[in-house]
Design brief:
alpha+beta, Rossmann fold, 3 domains, eight-stranded mixed beta sheet, seven-stranded antiparallel beta sheet, 13 helices, 24% helix, 22% strand, globular
Length: 585
C-alpha cells in the first residue's frame, strides 16, 4: 500500500478545528448581509418606467439640514453610501448591504449602532448613444448645474430618525416619497439677456439635442448707440444660474445676517448684495469701458461645466463654444467679432479655462487673466507629480506611508486628504460619474475606456497612478508642458496675453503648478512672453491679483477688475486699424 502525507495532514487540521472550536456554526447563514439592512422600494411616482441611476443612502447626526446637504470633504461631513442601479423595475426593492461603497465609513457594517437621521436619494441617469460608438448612462443636467442633491426630477425620501443596528436582521424600509421640482429659468431685463442655442457639434457627439447658454450683460447706452460694436468680456467659471454679482437695487434692509465660515465674516450676505449693487453703479457710470460681459452655461453629463476644451469623453466643447456660441452672441448683440476684441478671465476652474482657451485658440482670444487656476502643470497636480509619483494618496517610505493632504488653510492646517476627497466621489458615483472635482478632471483629460467611460488616472480606491494615462494627459492638457513644447509656434501669438494670479497659500496647493509654469514663462525668448505672474502673500483660494482687498471682497469684483485692466492695455495687442474709441463713450 502506498501512503501520502495529504490524508494525515487533512485529518490533523480537521482535528484542530474541532478541538479549538473554530468550525463555523451550522446555524449561521453565510448569505446574511452584514451591517444594517436598508431596503428602498420602487417609487410610486415612477410607475411605468424602468430607472437607471445612483442610489444614495445618507446618514447624519446633525439636524441643522437635510442629510443630502451635509456631505463634504470637511471633518464635519456626514455619511453616504452609494450603489449603481440599472433597469430598476416596478415591484423591485433595492437593498443597501456591505456591498455599497461608503464615505467616510467605507463599509456599512462598521457603522456604529445608534439613532441617526436617514435619507435616501436617487440620482437619475439617462442613456446616451454617442457618435463614437459607445453607449453610456449618465446624469443629464436639468438646469441646476449638475448638483446631485438639487437636480430636478431626482427622487428622495423625507428625512426621519431611524435606529441602525449592525446586528439586526430586520430591514429598515424607506420610501422615495419626494421629487425635486423643476427650476424656473431667469427672465430677461434691460441689461441682462439670456440665450440658449442647440449646438450642432455637441448634438452630433452625444446623439441627442445638446445646448449651450449664456448670460449677457449689455453695456450702458447699448440701445442709444445702435452703430457701436463692442468687445466681448468672457468670464469662465462654474455654472451660473444668472449673471452673477449684479443687482440694480440697494441691499435689502430687512434680511437676517448670514455668517460666512469661509471668510469668518458676519453678515456676508449683505456684503455680497452691496458689492453687486456697487457693480451696477460702476457699470452704468461714466468712464467704464462699454463691453459685452458674458457668463457661459456649459453644464454637461459629467459636471457643471465642460472646462471649455475638446475632450474624448465630453465632446467638442472647446470648438462649440468658440465657433458656435461666441459668434452667435456677437451677432445678436453687435460684438466686434475679432480675436483681439475677445478676452477671457476667471478663477479656479475658470482660471484654468481662461488659460486653456487662450493656449488652444491663440488667434480667437485676445488676452487671458487666469486667477488661482486648477493645476496648469501636472508635475504639481495639487500635491501629486503625475509623471514621477507611483501613488496619488500616499508618500511612500520604507516603513510607513504618509497620506497626502488635499486641503489646507492659510496657516497650513490640513482639513482633508486626497484619499478622502476621492473616496467621497467614489461613493457618489462610479465610472467618473460623481459630478465632482477629481472626476471631471478625469473625464476631460482622459481617453475613453473600452466601456465608454473615462480611463482612470489612478485607481480610485488605492491611488495607484496609471503612467500611460498620465502621459496622455501630459500631451493634451498639461498647459505648462504644451506651452513649452509648442512655444516656437505659440509664442508669437501669445506675447502679452498671459496673466496668472495665485495665493501662495492656496487651499488646494494650486500655487505649486503656477511656480512651475512661471519658471518656463520667465525664461522664454523669441519671444519673451511679456505677461504677468503674481502671488498673494498668505492668500488662500481664490486670490485674483488684488493686493488691496481680502479674498472675500476681491472675488466679487472680477468684472470691475479685469475689464478696465484689459481696456487699458488692449492697444498693445490690437491691430493698428482696430476701433478702440467708439465703445469708450
Amino acid at each position: 500500500m502506498k501512503y501520502t502525507t495529504q490524508p494525515i495532514t487533512s485529518i490533523c487540521i480537521l482535528f484542530l478545528i474541532f478541538a479549538l472550536g473554530f468550525l463555523p456554526s451550522c446555524t449561521q447563514d453565510s448569505n446574511t448581509p452584514k451591517g444594517p439592512i436598508v431596503e428602498v422600494a420602487f417609487p410610486a411616482s415612477a410607475e411605468g418606467e424602468n430607472l437607471d441611476g445612483r442610489l444614495l443612502l445618507l446618514i447624519s447626526t446633525n439636524e441643522d439640514a437635510e442629510p443630502r446637504f451635509q456631505i463634504s470633504d470637511n471633518p464635519g461631513t456626514q455619511q453616504v453610501y452609494g450603489m449603481d442601479v440599472e433597469n430598476w423595475a416596478s415591484g423591485q426593492t433595492q437593498t443597501f448591504t456591505a456591498e455599497a461603497y461608503g464615505y467616510p465609513v467605507e463599509n456599512i457594517s462598521d457603522l456604529p449602532t445608534g439613532e441617526y437621521t436617514v435619507q435616501v436619494l436617487f440620482h437619475k441617469y439617462e442613456t446616451f448613444n454617442r457618435s463614437d460608438g459607445h453607449t453610456v448612462k449618465l446624469p443629464m443636467d436639468r438646469g441646476e448645474g449638475q448638483q446631485w442633491n438639487r437636480a430636478p426630477g431626482n427622487l428622495y425620501s423625507t428625512p426621519k430618525k431611524i435606529n441602525l443596528n449592525s446586528s439586526s436582521k430586520t430591514p429598515v424600509k424607506i420610501d422615495l416619497d419626494q421629487e425635486i421640482p423643476p427650476i424656473e429659468p431667469p427672465e430677461d431685463t434691460k441689461y441682462v439677456k439670456h440665450i440658449k442655442i442647440q449646438s450642432e457639434m455637441l448634438t452630433e457627439f452625444w446623439g441627442r439635442p445638446m445646448y449651450l447658454g449664456a448670460h449677457v450683460l449689455l453695456p450702458e447706452g447699448f440701445d442709444e448707440n445702435p452703430n457701436v460694436k463692442y468687445p466681448l468680456a468672457i468670464m469662465h467659471g462654474h455654472f451660473p444660474a444668472d449673471f452673477g454679482g449684479w443687482r440694480t437695487t440697494p441691499p435689502d434692509e430687512d434680511i437676517d445676517c448670514v455668517y460666512s465660515a469661509r471668510f469668518d465674516l458676519d453678515c456676508y450676505n449683505k456684503i455680497v448684495q452691496q458689492e453687486a449693487y456697487d457693480f451696477y453703479k460702476t457699470w452704468t457710470g461714466p468712464n467704464f469701458p462699454r463691453v459685452l460681459a458674458v457668463e457661459i452655461q456649459h453644464a454637461n453629463p459629467y459636471y457643471d461645466d465642460s472646462y471649455a476644451v475638446n475632450s474624448e469623453n465630453l465632446g467638442p466643447y472647446g470648438d462649440a463654444i468658440t465657433y458656435e456660441l461666441i459668434p452667435y452672441i456677437e451677432e445678436q448683440f453687435r460684438g466686434i467679432g475679432e480675436g483681439w476684441a475677445r478676452f477671457v478671465y476667471g478663477g479656479s476652474t475658470g482660471g484654468w479655462e481662461a488659460l486653456a482657451v487662450q493656449v488652444k485658440y491663440p488667434d480667437d482670444y485676445g488676452t487671458c487673466y487666469a486667477a488661482c487656476p486648477d493645476p496648469i502643470d501636472f508635475r504639481a497636480y495639487t500635491l501629486v507629480n503625475l509623471y514621477e509619483h507611483e501613488n496619488a494618496y500616499y508618500e511612500d517610505g520604507p516603513f510607513r506611508n504618509q497620506l497626502r493632504a488635499g486641503r489646507r488653510n492659510y496657516l497650513g492646517e490640513v482639513s482633508s486628504s486626497l484619499k478622502g476627497m476621492n473616496q467621497r466621489e467614489l461613493a457618489l458615483g462610479s465610472k467618473s460619474r460623481s459630478g465632482q472635482q477629481w472626476d471631471i478632471w478625469e473625464a476631460v483629460y482622459s481617453p475613453v475606456g473600452n466601456d465608454g467611460y473615462p480611463k482612470r488616472i489612478w485607481d480610485k480606491k488605492t491611488g495607484v497612478i496609471d503612467a500611460e494615462i498620465a502621459n496622455y494627459w501630459k500631451e493634451n492638457y498639461d498647459l505648462s508642458y504644451i506651452l513649452k513644447r509648442d512655444w516656437a509656434e505659440l509664442g508669437p501669438k501669445l506675447k502679452g496675453k498671459i496673466h496668472i494670479y495665485c495665493g501662495d497659500m492656496d487651499n488646494y496647493y494650486l500655487n505649486n503648478a503656477v511656480y512651475l509654469a512661471e519658471d518656463f514663462l520667465e525664461g522664454t525668448t523669441a519671444p519673451y512672453y511679456d505677461g504677468e505672474v503674481d502671488y498673494g502673500d498668505r492668500a488662500e483660494h481664490c486670490w485674483n491679483g488684488d493686493h488691496t482687498q481680502p479674498n472675500a471682497i476681491s472675488r466679487l469684483r472680477y468684472h470691475t477688475m479685469f475689464i478696465p485692466k484689459w481696456a487699458n492695455s488692449v492697444s498693445k495687442i490690437a491691430p493698428k486699424v482696430a476701433d478702440l474709441r467708439s465703445w469708450r463713450y
